[in-house]
Amino acid sequence: MTCAHKICLNSFISLGLYGLIYAFIARRLWIPAGVLFVLQYVGFAVYVVFRGVPSPVSLALGIAQTPSLINLFVLGLVAGSLSFGGAYTAIPFVQVEAVLKGKWLPQSVFLDCIAIGNVLPAPLVIFATFVGFQGGLVEGSLGTAFAGAVVITLGMFFPCFLFTIAGHDLLEKLVHNKVFLAMLLNMMAMLILRIVPGKFLRRSLWRRDRRDCSDCSTDAQSQRGRFCKRRY
């Protein structure tokens, strides 16, 4: 596993933690904010010492080991419920469950699903529809593929309608809560701060991994050439 893959850690913990830290800062509670800020690095250091650097699947839920219709619906439901910030937060969640954990969807096909979602005049989260189609196609016939596309789409959009309609009064109260509002604002800011530097860091690590692989192949070729010269 490359270094670029190892840095793709689960975002839910860090987003919630930094949202809580910012909520403390907004209320001028400097000591709890500082303690949480330090404890995050202490906890990560302890985890690395005893368990090693976490892999992309270390915090996966494993809710879609196979692309059955019920698993696809649950995958869409959980992704739509937990991926705050839009489709860009849902993409890695679906990827780790379908590509890395379940291994029923190739990485190249997953990228094609995202590409199709980008070119269509629809929300980017519609990429999940094509993931469900591919999952249903793996599981059964063409009819199952269309059914998979429908159920994962329903699961992905259901939390949005549920939170908006059923929880309207509660959301209105939470918006006027200064602590909760500060936490949400920081979570949105942290999402941007994680996406932009992470892209550049991952690209640089990917280039370094390719360079290391090319160096290894060059060394192997040179050793093979020296062996042939000694032999002949």
SSE map:
Layout lengths: L2 H4 L5 H15 L3 H22 L17 H14 L4 H15 L5 H13 L7 H13 L2 H24 L2 H8 L2 H54 L1
Helix pairs in contact: 2-3, 2-10, 4-5, 4-8, 6-7, 7-8
What can you see in these coordinates?
With 232 residues, the protein is mainly α. The chain has 2 domains: 99 residues, no CATH class; 98 residues, no CATH class. The protein is 78% helix and 0% strand. Helix 2 runs antiparallel to helix 3 and helix 6 packs across helix 7. The radius of gyration is 22 Å and the shape is globular. It starts with a helix and ends with a helix.
Question: Which strand-content bin applies to the residues?
Answer: under 5%
Order of helices and strands: HHHHHHHHHH
Number of strands: 0
Biggest β-sheet, characterized?
Answer: none
Low-pLDDT runs of 5+ residues are 1-10, 224-232
**Given the C-alpha coordinates, what overall shape results?**
globular
The end-to-end distance, rounded to whole angstroms, is: 39 Å
Q: What is the number of independent domains?
A: 2
> What gyration radius follows from the Cα positions, in whole Å?
22 Å
The percentage helix is over 70%
Number of helices: 10
Classification by helices and strands: mainly alpha
Please summarize what this structure is:
By secondary structure, the protein is mostly helical. The chain has helices at residues 3-6, 12-26, 30-51, 69-82, 87-101, 107-119, 127-139, 142-165, 168-175, 178-231. It has 2 domains: 3-58 and 174-216, no CATH class; 69-166, no CATH class.
Features:
232 residues; mainly alpha; 2 domains; globular; disordered N terminus; disordered C terminus
